Amino acid sequence: MEKNKNTINVADELAKSISSRDSLVVLVRIIKSIRNKVVNLDFSKVEFISRSTAHELLKIQNDFNNKFFNKRINFVNTNKDVSEMLRIVAANLASPKAKKPTSKAGVVDIHSLLEDFG
What is the reported pLDDT for 1? Predict the structure, then answer.
């Protein structure tokens, strides 16, 4: 890949189906080599990404958009399934974590429950 181009064809560099966040190491290396401040990840040939891949892609996007790298990463030409996976994971990351229940479950004797109805 030429270092002055700003579009990476994800399927050509990785695969049409990406199910491992570890495979994105290759993508990060390529992004770092690009001199432009805007990098487009072209998903036109990608058919599927896993939830963990979507999570890692969003993390990569966020990591590059900091003061050190100051690169904007765009996801372009995503199909419906890839878009939906990215949307679901992004929404999950944006929403606060649910609090753990504060009540404690106790042991209940079935006979005492039946006495209430008898």
Answer: 47
